[in-house]
């Protein structure tokens, strides 16, 4: 990754994002739709690694504003799709409208973002006393990290990466495997609409907590991961037994789920930005983001058989 210039990485993210929207919008086969989803995930994951690494060249408070922006993006995306489709726009047109996002992304990076003057595009960050008072720190002098150093730094990051992995495994297991199965027939929302507004509710929680680190920093991210996994167990029982009396209680639980996930994310990366050595920070920010990606991927794989088993059980009880 460090051998690829940041501008090239951003261009790759944009291309995959554009491709994903068009592929999903114009797909008539399942495999092509799934490929579009893969392209969207490539754009998202590649962008996260790129911009988290890039944030190491700025003040540490950039991490909190970055996290707030990602939380706002999730909320805007879920709310836009739910709102447009609820207003009568077809899903295809709603997805095509979203092509404005990668275009705006490129404008923001190349025309709006103020580049650190010390940064040559693919250099890692090094601390410099003469830059200590600026909005970023670094020098034009750099050296590549050896494999041994990278492994040592990665080992030290496990205190952040394991809780990130666990919290994202739990919340994406809930989002991908359980939300569809928890709905009420006697509400003003159809099951499909309930699912869409669950996503909006979840993203509201993520946005609030990802914007909170400067006001309410929280060091014990292991505790957040434990609470999220308790949430997972509770909702597995709800999907199986359907004991909650109201959809409103479910909305509260989902908001809480988003708060836990967003808080773990922002506090983990904020601590990395403050506690890791300056010469290791760029590498650390990028590699730590692999933890949540791995948690999401494993959650997707695990949720498939569990979702199918819960559906089979539900059908057998109906008979």
Overall 3D form: globular
Q: Low-confidence parts, pLDDT < 50 over ≥5 residues?
A: 120-142
- The assigned structural class equals mainly alpha
Q: What proportion of the residues is helical, as a percent range?
A: over 70%
The sequence of SSEs as H and E is HHHHHHHHHHH
Strand content: under 5%
**What composes the largest sheet?**
none
In short:
Helices cover 73% and strands 0% of the residues. It has 319 residues and is mainly alpha-helical.
Write a structural description:
With 319 residues, this protein is mostly helical. 73% of the residues lie in helices and 0% in strands. The chain has eleven helices and no strands. It has helices at residues 6-25, 30-55, 61-86, 91-97, 100-112, 147-156, 158-178, 191-210, 221-241, 247-275, 278-318. Helix 2 (30-55) packs antiparallel against helix 11 (278-318), helix 3 packs antiparallel against helix 8 (191-210) and helix 9 packs antiparallel against helix 10. The longest helix is centred in the C-terminal third of the chain and has 41 residues, at 278-318. It is globular and about 60 Å long. The relative contact order is 0.14.
Question: Strands, helices and their partners?
Answer:
Elements: H1 6-25, H2 30-55, H3 61-86, H4 91-97, H5 100-112, H6 147-156, H7 158-178, H8 191-210, H9 221-241, H10 247-275, H11 278-318
Features:
319 residues, single chain
